[in-house]
Amino acid sequence: MDHFDIKDGVLHAEDVALPEIAAAVGTPVYVYSTATIERHARVFLDAVADVESTPEKPLVAFAVKSNPNRAVLAILTKLGLGADVVSGGELLRARAAGIPADRIVFSGVGKTADEMKLALREGIYQFNVESEPEAEMLSTVAIELGTTAPIAFRINPNVVAGTHAKISTGGSEDKFGVAYDRAMAAYARAAELPGLNVRGVAVHIGSQLTNLDPSRAAFEKVGALIADLRAAGHDIVTADLGGGLGVPYDPAKPTPPLPDVYGAMVREVTAGWNVRLLFEPGRVIVGNAGVLLSKVIRVKPGVTDPFVIVDAAMNDLMRPSLYDAYHEVRNVEPDGSRMTAHIVGPICESGDTFAKNREMDAVEADDLVTFMTAGAYGATMANTYNSRALTPEVLVSGNNWALVRERQPIESLIAADKLPPWL
């Protein structure tokens, strides 16, 4: 469910007509719905509220990489969510949004010593360590700072997620985590290292999961590993089950499992673990909460179907080019007529294509269109290819809206280039 609806013939974000935003901010622009973010966060929180846990309630740590806008993070921290971060920059963003350090988990395969120092000084809840060499580096950094780093090893369970290859993270040839059959040795080695508090297990098999069977298989392996680790003398008190729950992009495809179904599966699999469970949802909270608002530049005749050329491009929304991802495209003021077209942007690459042979609302030059379900992995992946300014972002709440990231002036992009003295 989202809060983007047609009212009086015009698509609105909550109670704000999208043409009002386009007129004030220009296009392309990302538009987020506060009500949708809040609803999806509460639905997920409710779904995992009574899963197996210690006296501490589960920690739901929002995957900052999916949407790092500080305003979005501020909404979530008020609801009690923490943050799953994968860089020092994301850690600083989370803290700037008011997320307490003791609700932050640091994941990622390539943490640097400087990032480790930052996280230790902030006092984060846990590092999800992805290799034995990383554990050794973290030990050295913690000793240097005179502190102790709480860690879980991220385990690669060799479970194929059944999602796009570029967002699958739990297979044996993926770069993430410690191989399952190396886990016992990794924990034994970490227990010998000073400055580490080895206390948890983590797993994350991929993103945009549409079937719970791979997650169940991975979680069952985690449960068996926890039992083996405790038998070997390790005090395991946390289990991070990652994120990845999918959202509906293409209305023609089956709807992914809802959070309450996911929660029921987790409740069944984790019964008796006696750990504090951690979750890292991202897309499932913000995906449907955002749209990319764009304007049609012109409609160009094609050999078969016409090309609808919009002012948004692959640098604004990379998912179709990168993953062949589907985003529904709507006319902001539809008249009921339909057309079949190729939807493309202005960048000088054939890859700058959002859809081919797409049946869609009929459009013509200067019409506004929205790319739906763009709140996750949209603005966060935007770039300045073809010297295009970074896309601005707007947050709507009821009948109010605010610019929460300005459009970068192209002059500032040019000014960042420095000429060497010999030119």
TrEMBL record:
GO biological process: lysine biosynthetic process via diaminopimelate
Cofactor(s) needed by this chain: pyridoxal 5'-phosphate
Highest taxon, organism lineage: Bacteria
Pathway given in the UniProt record: Amino-acid biosynthesis; L-lysine biosynthesis via DAP pathway; L-lysine from DL-2,6-diaminopimelate: step 1/1
Enzyme class at the top of the EC tree: lyase
Pfam families to which the protein is assigned, alphabetical: Orn_Arg_deC_N, Orn_DAP_Arg_deC
InterPro entries recorded: Ala_racemase/Decarboxylase_C, DAP_deCOOHase_LysA, De-COase2_C, De-COase2_N, De-COase2_pyr-phos_BS, Orn/DAP/Arg_de-COase, PLP-binding_barrel
Listed name of the protein: Diaminopimelate decarboxylase
Organism: Sphingomonas crocodyli
Lineage: Bacteria, Pseudomonadati, Pseudomonadota, Alphaproteobacteria, Sphingomonadales
